Amino acid sequence: MRKTLLYLGVTYLILFAVSCRKSSVFNGGGTPAPVDTGKSEQPQIIETEPPVLTAMVQKISSNVRGYYQALPVHYAESEERYPVIIFFHGGGQYGDGDKDLIRVLEDGIPKLLKEQKFPPSFNVNGRSYSFIIIAPQFTKSIPEAEVETLVQYVKQNFRVDTSRIYLSGFSLGARTLCNYAAYRPNQIAAITAMGGMSQIDTNLRPKCESMGAANLPVWQFHNRNDSAWYYSEAKRFNQVLTECSLTITPKFTTFDQGEGKKNHDCWNRTSDPNYREDGKNIYEWMLSYKR
To answer: What DSSP assignment string belongs to 115-160?
Structure first.
């Protein structure tokens, strides 16, 4: 009799523990809670249509008051976690996050999304990946702590694979993301900086040392005849970053002729999924790395 009661007691405790574990994965509404329960490398649904682009007027911080989100078409039908690209626009796209928000769609990845030219998925090492893309609008250049608020907002409000957070941007946006990458390098899987980089000052080497020590992959682009942001600064940034990198050599791509005003634009060319180096576009290159 004692053995029977002991057996029933142990069985009840096991069932109770399993029940508690299951309930902890879901919130009261029955939807997945924003906790990392495992990172799905192979999506359950292979996307075939371009991501769904939506304008969101939402104050995230003092200088981030709106953003565009682009989600895989079947995002709501899945519980999987996705890689995310946070896109940083340039100084010409600053605005109030509301009536000015459309400026964010003028260049780079957001332009591709608007024109429905951004691929629904990418195949890397035999696996298919679809991105969440978040393109905020800044009222002005923002400090690293405010970028951290943005990154945390994205992690808390979207099903993000936290081992695959990527930053991409151009001009002053590239400077902002490089500064943040030095501030929190272990949160980021890879960055692509186009026509901009960290300031060339006494803080440059410590920033590069931070990124290099974290083995952060960096792909930098610049035009040799850029008269808005001189090529010599881009070259210096790459030189110091290369000196500070321990295992992953930074990529540095230059073009003899730039596009747009003051030959500054290298981002529309390099954001194009058809642009490849060593057989990879920037999206396939980023997906080659994870934390």
So the answer is: TT-S-S-EEETTEEE--EEEEEEESS---HHHHHHHHHHHHHHS-E
Round to whole Å and give the CA distance between 248 and 255: 23
Place of tokens 């906790």: 35
Q: Which domains does the chain have, with CATH numbers?
A: 47-287 (3.40.50.1820)
Q: Which residue has the tokens 């400077």?
A: 175
Can you tell me the distance from the alpha carbon of 239 to that of 89, in angstroms, rounded to the nearest whole number?
25
CB 165 within 8 Å of CB 191:
no
Sheet of 132-138: strand order equals 52-61, 64-71, 132-138, 82-88, 160-170, 190-194, 218-223, 251-255
CA 226, 253, 193, 285: dihedral to nearest 10 degrees? 160
- Per-residue pLDDT of 66-119, as tens digits, reads 999 999 999 999 899 999 999 999 999 999 999 999 999 999 999 999 999 999
The number of C-alpha atoms within 13 Å of 33 and in the hemisphere containing its C-beta is 10
Q: Is 85 helix (H, G, I), strand (E, B) or coil?
A: strand
Q: Strands 52-61 and 82-88, how do they pair?
A: unpaired
pLDDT in tens, 16-54: 443 443 333 222 222 333 334 344 555 568 899 999 999
